[in-house]
From TrEMBL:
<comment type="similarity">
    <text>Belongs to the bacterial solute-binding protein 1 family.</text>
</comment>
<dbReference type="InterPro" id="IPR006059">
    <property type="entry name" value="SBP"/>
</dbReference>
<feature type="region of interest" description="Disordered">
    <location>
        <begin position="26"/>
        <end position="56"/>
    </location>
</feature>
<protein>
    <submittedName>
        <fullName>Sugar ABC transporter substrate-binding protein</fullName>
    </submittedName>
</protein>
<dbReference type="InterPro" id="IPR050490">
    <property type="entry name" value="Bact_solute-bd_prot1"/>
</dbReference>
<keyword id="KW-0732">Signal</keyword>
<keyword id="KW-0813">Transport</keyword>
<feature type="signal peptide">
    <location>
        <begin position="1"/>
        <end position="23"/>
    </location>
</feature>
<dbReference type="Pfam" id="PF01547">
    <property type="entry name" value="SBP_bac_1"/>
</dbReference>
<dbReference type="GO" id="GO:0030313">
    <property type="term" value="C:cell envelope"/>
</dbReference>
<feature type="compositionally biased region" description="Low complexity">
    <location>
        <begin position="26"/>
        <end position="49"/>
    </location>
</feature>
Length: 462
């Protein structure tokens, strides 16, 4: 476990976040906007001393009288639900002075439903959000500055990459909650019938070429329409990016001043996907389409699924003892995985900022992060917990493998994904990849050039 910890911290130390502007969602008009501006000014003054505000004296956290806090989040799986049920019950028990209400949305409609509320100036007090999408709020003064409320010891314990992802303009505007990764799920029976042995270590991970050959073999042997799928559906194309960086490509150059999707390395990664589609090795589900990968996998329509650590309970519920998980493929000795997970932030215009800060501090402290991750099969983002190790409520062996995979996250990918313009870059990636995937109406070369052109326009607008 200490080996995993050291690899994660080493990756985190290499991550830099580029500050910039991103047009935030409209908060409407009226009192909410006024409160947001007022709170932003107040917290800025409170954190004016010290190094980027982090060294300022932490305020005593005592909830405002009659505080009521609404927490908005989604539940993406049964294990996700279990974790939130545990955390919310414990929060209510330990903080009876705060009235806690929850608004739980389906994972595939969360962002749209929350955006609708925000457009009507109806903000929850505390929200769950993916790291890659926090940027949309950072430039609009709508995120409560948590700097005065979170102690330095707590901040120092966070893995640097995730701590920095929650910073903006020298302020702590969110707190990391957990991470998760994707790996290669496989159909046990299909592999056993074919006499295929599964890699037992990172060093033994299949090369891309070996994996492609195995996919061909299993597709033919089992009469499959497709051999594999990936959870980069539902406009989550960033989950495919580990392949781009595995091949030596990247979205941007080192200082993030230029798009680099026209490099030979980037083209080679896109051509891999094109070749899989041309042979019908991977399904034809668009990056912007409704999720289908996991449903096809548990229905024995796929031999492999690039799916998440949080999907173990779904797999077991729908395919009891019929699945296993192994390492991502590698290219020339390099592998990787998705930088998943979520942070928590509060609305700057909340009527009860201290109570909101109490909720966020409570849910993300070491004790409760450990409990949440163990219950929900998530990976913690605190150095102390990575070193200590976790005892998960289920899937212990699989979760230890996922924690090992977490150490392979490419540090340049993590930097690019947490840059302010990334959300728009992700949209451009999704839209450029779709024609090649669905019906082959775009070539890999055209995809690469479309990405280069559109992403350059996006980057130059910041």
């Amino acid at each position: 476990m200490k080996k995993i910890f050291k690899r994660l911290v080493a990756a985190g130390l290499g991550v830099t976040i580029v500050a910039g502007s991103l047009a935030g969602c409209s908060s409407g008009s009226g009192t909410g906007e006024t409160q947001a501006a007022s709170q932003a000014e107040t917290t800025a003054a409170e954190s004016a001393s010290g190094d980027s505000g982090q060294a300022a004296e932490t305020e005593e956290l005592v909830a405002e009288e009659g505080a009521e806090i609404e927490i908005a989040y989604w539940e993406g799986s049964q294990s996700d639900k279990d974790a939130w049920d545990w955390a919310i019950a414990k929060l209510k028990e330990d903080h009876p002075e705060i009235t806690i209400t929850t608004q739980i949305y389906p994972s595939d409609t969360y962002r749209d439903q929350l955006d609708t509320r925000i457009a009507g100036d109806d903000w929850p007090d505390v929200m769950r959000y993916t790291y890659q999408r926090l940027g949309k709020f950072k430039d609009s003064n709508t995120m409560l500055d948590l700097t005065p409320y979170i102690g330095q010891e707590s901040l120092d314990d966070l893995i640097p990459a995730f701590r920095e992802a929650c910073m903006y303009d020298g302020k702590l505007v969110a707190m990391p909650h957990h991470t998760d990764v994707i790996a290669l799920f496989y159909n046990k029976k299909m592999l056993a019938d074919a006499g295929i042995e599964v890699p037992q270590s990172l060093e033994e991970a299949w090369t891309v070429e070996e994996f492609t050959d195995i996919a061909r073999q299993l597709k033919e042997a089992n009469g499959l329409d497709y051999a594999m799928g990936g959870i980069w559906e539902n406009s989550s194309g960033y989950r495919w990016l580990p392949f781009l960086y595995m091949y030596g490509g990247s979205l941007m150059n080192e200082d993030q001043t230029a798009i680099t999707m026209d490099t030979p390395e980037a083209l080679e990664a896109i051509k891999l996907y094109e070749s899989w589609r041309q042979e019908d090795l991977i399904n034809n589900v668009a990056f912007t389409a409704t999720p289908a990968c996991n449903m096809m996998f548990v229905a024995n329509q796929l031999a492999f699924a690039f799916a998440g650590s949080w999907h173990c309970s779904y797999m077991e519920e729908n395919m009891p003892d019929g699945w296993g998980v192994t390492y991502m493929p590698q290219k020339d000795g390099k592998t990787g995985s998705d930088m998943g997970g979520n942070g928590l932030f509060a609305y700057a215009g909340t009527e009860y900022p201290k109570a909101a800060a109490i909720v966020i501090e409570y849910l993300t402290n070491a004790e409760n992060m450990k409990g949440f991750c163990e219950a929900g099969n998530f990976i913690p983002v605190r150095q102390s917990l990575m070193e200590e190790g976790l005892t998960f409520s289920s899937f212990q062996e699989e979760m230890e493998l996922f924690m090992e995979i977490a150490g392979t996250i490419d540090e340049k990918m993590a930097s690019d994904e947490t840059s302010v313009p990334f959300q728009e870059l992700n949209i451009a990636l999704n839209e450029a990849m779709d024609p090649m995937i669905v019906d082959g109406s775009s070539t890999a070369e055209e995809v690469a050039q479309n990405c280069q052109t559109t992403m350059t326009e996006i980057l130059e607008s910041y």
